[in-house]
Design brief:
Elements: H1 10-13, H2 18-24, H3 26-29, E1 42-44, E2 50-51, H4 55-60, E3 68-72, H5 79-90, E4 94-95, E5 98-99, E6 102-106, E7 109-110, E8 113-114, H6 117-122, E9 128-129, H7 145-159, H8 169-183, H9 190-198, H10 202-220, H11 227-234, H12 242-261, E10 282-286, H13 292-312, E11 321-325, H14 336-350, E12 353-358, H15 362-365, H16 373-380, E13 387-390, H17 395-401, H18 409-417, E14 422-427, E15 433-436, H19 443-450, H20 452-455, H21 474-478
Helix pairs in contact: 2-18, 5-19, 7-8, 7-12, 7-13, 8-9, 8-12, 9-12
Length: 484
Amino acid sequence: MAKTPRRRSQIAGFVAPGVDVLSALNPQISTYNGGSDEFPVGNDRLSKMPFGVDPDYLMEKKRISSKKILILGNIGEGKTSMIKDICMQLMKISSGGRRQRISIDDVNRRNGRPEYELFAKEMRCAPIRLGHPINPFDSQFGFTRSEHLETINSMFSFGNNNLVAVGNQDFVNRVAMSKMYREMGDIASTQTFRTILQYMNEDDVRLYMHENNEKIPAELGIEKMPEKLKDLIARGKTNVIYEEILKDAGHNYQRIDRILEGEFGKVFGGTQSIARKLQQRVVVKDYSGLNITSVALMQQFMWRLRNSAQLRGDRRFMFQVSVHDENYKMMRVEGYPEALTDAMKQGRGNDELIILASHRIRDYWSVGGPESLQRQMATNIFSDIDLLIVGKQNKKDLNDLETLVEITQLERNVIMAQTRGQFAVKIGTEPWFFIETDSTFTEIKERITRSNGALENALNRSIVVEDEFVQLSDEELETEEALV
């Protein structure tokens, strides 16, 4: 016997437009908790009060404990537009006494061009196309010798099928690095390093060992070398087997050559500097043209530069806001989950706002196997997030989201009924409230945030940029060289 169809109410059944559902729920969910209203990105749908994202304000009021935002939304629901609008508003205020600088990892293409490219240009900033070869040994990065060695060892590992250096291989890299900066610092590059490996001889090894002997007194904390060590060194005969070292130099040469000539797209094969473009107010790093192995290699370098800048207090390469749109794709990149996890932890100390965005929570569950470290790291990042902004989601997506945060049936109905530009917001442990963004759009904001196609004719005004930020000329913005 067939079951009699059960009648479903408008509220429980989600059979009405979003506005109607919200109105029906009005007595239960008039819970707007407010944010900053100085630079609004939307208005509360019930109270009509303005809502703006100001993490410093929310931290000051102890409503959140970390400056991490997760934005979810189906394709076409305004998720990326929300990110662009938040970034525009944050650029008007300061954090930690400094005006905001923004870093964006761009991994998508829309209509044949990187998603944030035109946004960067409207801020008078040129995106960095990381498909063009760069020079990781550029002196402007301010790396120490040991940090340069980390870069080489990273390249070696990638070229060696993810196997770390063994035997004399690490020693060989140190010898070559020493020679490059002792004799060829003005032309330091991956090509120069490869050539040194190719033509390394015993004299190079001997000179490196002699340099290390000269360092012994300083390393021992004394002014002069002890006589016993002098006598030992004076023997002249060493246990070092030069033939084995030079054999490994040939092995290392082949691995670095693979980075330059193999499947990695020569991402580190250039001599041009990107240091200046990394000092812009908005830095869009375009990974969209790279294959997955090249992305992994470049990402490790960028994280290394970020960490080095923080340790040195080098504000040229430090940012107050970092955006990772659809970064679940990057979670499959070796080293990225660990680096992002570390960044999430360090964010409390360096006052950085991290914005993560994706279509749904399940995107992060697609990373690695069920028990893999990548999967664990991809999902563990949610424990640090205190501010959720959620566009339209279907029933299955909301079931997944409920594993992280409580959602009542009434709130589920509203979220499922949302249209483009409408979002549910949850601050800390406070109740959900609901915003719409259309009413806060000025003509400029409309053009900037709605789509890349609309951006082409946006902003006929200049952007005021502080002196410490690099501002490119019109000629630089119009030439291909500005994108390298």
